[in-house]
Specification:
The protein folds into two domains: about 5-80 and about 115-195, 3-Layer(aba) Sandwich (Rossmann fold); about 200-290. About 50% of the residues lie in helices and about 15% in strands. It has 15 helices and nine strands. The chain has helices spanning about 5-15, 20-35, 50-60, 75-80, 85-95, 100-110, 120-125, 145-155, 185-190, 200-210, 220-230, 240-255, 260-270, 275-280, 285-300; strands at about 40, 65, 80, 115, 130-135, 155-160, 165, 175-180, 195. A hairpin with a 3-residue loop joins β6 (about 155-160) and β7 (about 165). α10 (about 200-210) packs across α11 (about 220-230) and α11 (about 220-230) crosses α15. It is elongated and about 85 Å long. Bound molecules: adenosine-5'-diphosphate and magnesium ion (MG).
Length: about 300
């Protein structure tokens, strides 16, 4: 598949059920064209992880995901030695008697005993073209890891002390995401093309729902989206993302709901709000008011 324009990106992603606005399509196009990492920041559930999956699938590339977490260090992101296999090799050599220590050592630290972790795997050649490397939720790691990543992404190479430096012949397509629980360092952002992934507009969210829950009737889909959009204007601890909109629609479908009512909303609020304080705030008269407002927005003028 060749990508020659922003429109190409939009239709390529639409083919994967990913609905992408013009701004995100533009930065994605540029990232692919210029071979620059793409840094996507935004609230949870706005489609940051999903776009990496959609790109990989549309281009027929392998998706390699590095899920970040607190305490993730460079070594475990790049490689590990297979201790168990090394131990067996040592035992076998001992049993055979008179193992040459030097020879054994170099044997134990060769590729046969190397377990590749995402960053190393992403630098390797892959059939069908360079993989998509998704570095997900980078805000969960710490600054030393960011500095390490910056280096790896500058030269597209990683070092295994016992083996040397491994450089990508063809750089991977890199997508980094952050839920912005903290600011990611400028230096890393500067390496990348940046885009803030916002909550979608009503029309776009309805398109997403059509793509992800096509079995829902139009009336219900519109009410669901309008209600969630209203809900996001409320002062909540955690606003619902697109993922919640889709989940909620699916719950309502499973309950054979045809249109929303305050009772149905109260019974299913757990699909869109995940904090008891938020649920307590919205339940009852608030839900009724929001539904009324959502319906007023939907009414033809
Ligand atoms: N633009 C979109 N088009 C289609 N589906 C979307 C879109 N944005 C979000 N989704 C849906 O929402 C879910 C959650 O998105 P995800 O990428 O995991 O969010 P994030 O990584 O931003 O927290 C996805 O599985 C997908 O079904
Ligand atoms: Mg994500």
């Amino acid at each position: 598949m060749t990508i020659d324009s922003i429109d190409d990106v939009q239709s390529m992603l639409a083919g994967e059920g990913y609905i992408c606005g013009r701004a995100l399509a533009t930065v994605t196009f540029l990232s692919l064209k210029l071979g620059r990492p793409l840094f996507l920041e935004g609230e949870a559930g706005t489609g940051k992880t999903e776009i990496a999956k959609a790109i990989a699938s549309a281009l027929g590339r392998k998706l390699i995901r590095l899920q970040c977490y607190e305490g993730l260090d460079a070594a475990s992101a790049v490689y590990e030695w297979n201790f168990a296999a090394q131990m067996i090799a040592i035992r076998t050599a001992e049993a055979a008697g008179g193992a040459d220590r030097k020879a054994l050592q170099s044997e134990l630290f060769n590729e046969d005993f190397l377990i590749e972790r995402p960053l190393l795997e992403a630098m390797r050649p892959h059939e069908g073209g360079a993989p998509v490397l998704l570095i997900d939720e980078i805000d969960r790691t710490d600054e030393p890891f960011e500095a390490f990543l910056l280096e790896a992404l500058s030269d597209f190479q990683v070092t295994v002390p016992e083996l040397g430096t491994i450089k990508a012949q063809e750089p991977p397509i890199v997508i980094l995401t952050s839920n912005r629980t903290r600011e990611v360092h400028d230096a890393l952002k500067r390496r990348c093309l940046y885009h803030w992934v916002d909550y979608p507009t009503f029309d776009r969210e309805l398109d997403i729902l059509h793509a992800r829950a096509p079995e829902a009737q139009e009336t219900l889909s519109k009410e669901v989206v309008a209600f969630v959009q209203k809900l996001r204007t409320e002062d909540l601890f955690k606003k619902p993302g697109v993922a919640e909109t889709i989940d909620w629609a699916k719950c309502l479908l499973a309950l054979d709901v045809i249109d929303l009512s305050p009772e149905v909303i109260a019974d299913t609020l757990g699909a869109i709000l995940k904090y008891q304080d938020d649920i307590a705030r919205i339940e009852g008269s608030e839900a009724q008011r929001l539904l009324k407002e959502a319906r007023a927005d939907l009414a033809p003028v």
